[in-house]
Amino acid sequence: MKHFKRCQLATLIVALCSYNAYGEQVLDEKSEKKQPVEKITVIGSNFFSNPSEISADTLERLRSATSDTASLFRNIPGVTLQTSGGVSSFPVIRGLSDDRIRIKVDGMDLISACGNHMNPPLSYIDPTNVDSAAVYAGITPVSLGGDSVGSTIIVNAKEIEFSDNDKLLKKGQIGTSYRTNGNVFSRNIAATFATKMFSFNYNGSTTKAENYSAGGDFKEAGLAAAGREWLAADEVGSSQYKSTNHSLTLGMKYDNHVFDFKVGIQDIPYQAWVNQRMDMTGNDSTQLNFHYAGEYLWGVLDARLYKENTEHSMQFYEDKLFWYGSSPAVDGVPCTPSGGKTGCAAGMPMDTEGVNVGAVIKANIALSADETLRLGFESQDYTLDDWWDPSGKGMWPNTFININNGERDRLAFYTEWQNKFNTDLLVQLGLRYENVEMNADEVQGYSPMMANYGVEAAAFNAADRKKTDDNIDLTAIVHYQLNSVDTIEFGYARKTRSPNLYERYTWSTGGMVMRMINMVGDGNGYVGNLELNAEVSHTLSASFDWKEATQKTWGVTLAPYYTYIEDYIDVTRCASSNMNCGAANQTATEGFVYLQFVNESARIYGVDLSGFVILEENSHYGDLSATAAISYVRGKNNTTDDNLYNMMPLNATFSLQHNLDHWTNILELELVENKNKVSAVRNEVTTAGYGLVNLRSSYQFKALRIDFGIENLFDKFYHHPLGGAYTGQGKTMSSTGVPWGVSVPGMGRSLYTGISYKF
């Protein structure tokens, strides 16, 4: 009933929009006839708070080098990546990641339906299907996202196209790529057929990869686990994956109004996980996305209805021990199916299903030539079930209910005013209100007599599980033109994020259970907290932009920032009657530990410095330019004085680009400092500094494009500072089944090549 009422409201508004699309005429002052438009202006495209956009050429160049859409952002100042699955890494922006940043894919707020967040939003769009990608790393306007305390990422597939004459528009693209490290093979195809009024578009892609190799040995060679395959000393276990994505879009244009309906389907039969104790053994997702955009005399109206349904499964894949138990070993396997329920366990099946229904309505109203008002309404109803079927041994007779009918429903309204007072000064002010309601039904363990399941389930079921947060976001941005080329922009933002379902509603302190709840890849175990408050961040950010008089020869941007977060959701060592949360867990300075989410306070500050210079232009040898980006971030827990987890150390990227005729050649240098400021409560491991060299080349001739390159040219061995704990092989269900202190190694040398043809 709840979903029905909200969808009814959104459908009514969209219906009114549709009526106006046919009932209202946009008149030309002279002809007084309907004037059709070729492209509807997207709301948000005219913000003076400019995002860091990935250029079309960069998108083309990187598509052959990666299958992970998040990695497209890796050269943007302030952005780095948290290691996860091969198509599912997390972008980290100025020290914040995952749910703390807002990610919109084709206008949808997608949600990860997994206790390990194995299906983050950017994993649902393949790099070959990305047409535009941007990051609002500083102050994010309230119209571009709420329920977050940091930046916003916006990724879109190609806009729907229509023919500009009476002929049928027929176009498409086909491509393939190969990467040597991991034996990665990808294919993609796209096709569009359109008339002046109707359009049809299809995009499909698939990629398959084996385990990758590090730049050197980091463990002993041997069986990944009893009864599993052999892994070389430099082979990074549980890094293989396979992913297939399809999208089909139908569009219609009538005068100044465009309607489009997109269906997206994803099938990931497996994506092993190098820093989690489980692997993804199935992710089937269907997305329905209806969108309307129309231009009126007063401005632009934009409306969207979407539904995301995800069925997600986890188990132990090829590099992790599957059979657990006490039966006699047979051919080196410690347990076999013949051991029965009391003697062995067939892994640990874990299933989730998430249903995400959203509606977005936005109006961009031109009050005058220099003054704009934006109004918006957003609704999102999310339901999650997380259950683990019994597989034997102690995991029986019941199904373990981790989250039962978990609900997280958002209702938001915002207003945003922007005014250009004169040629030098622009101001933007925004206010956003969000109501977040959360609840979950009763739970149960495998057995009331095992691991305190009965006692803890009873306490959880008796507690008040319904929570309501009333969240307020405020933004103020000032943009000042110092002279004809130099600018300064500064602002303040108050932003709010309510806890996710796993932070609030996971309930068991059983060691095995806690080790399966982990959204950061550190190998530790986690339990939720019903008493969590919403996080509230206060951010001051500035951007100083200097350029040479023509704005073409050189440019430098300096962007400092400071964020204070009230009720920051960090962790403390868990304390309960369960032996896992005892005295040893409280004092351990090495090894994996057990943690509970708690509210504390934190501060994050840093600076991003970037620039470019044209070294040679229009010469006989082509054009030569250089770019640089340097980022520093520091995060501290004010309550405990501990370092925040997963803070990237000082890092820099330098590149030299050469263009000649149809050729583009790039030399990249990545430098990363030692990471020694680590989270003590998590026993986070330090990492050494390193430098990597990458070479990239591309050849573009009419409809044909060829890309090739070498990443990590000198096969450097390194541990990425945000790689997490290596849990990619062995007896991962056990607390001692994988060694503590081994970070995930980065990828060694990899040659790649890709070819695409547009027709």
**Which structural class do the helices and strands define?**
mainly beta
Question: Considering DSSP H and I runs of 4 or more, what fraction of the residues is helical?
Answer: under 10%
Strand content: over 45%
How many independent structural domains?
A: 1
Please tell me the CATH architecture by its name.
Beta Barrel
Low-pLDDT segments, ≥5 res: 8-47
Sheet having the most strands: 22 strands, antiparallel, barrel
CATH fold group:
Maltoporin, Chain A
CATH class: Mainly Beta
CA radius of gyration is: 26 Å
Number of E-type strands: 35
Report the average pLDDT across residues. Answer: 91
Number of discrete helical segments? 6
Distance between the termini: 48 Å
CATH superfamily: TonB-dependent receptor, beta-barrel domain
Shape label: globular
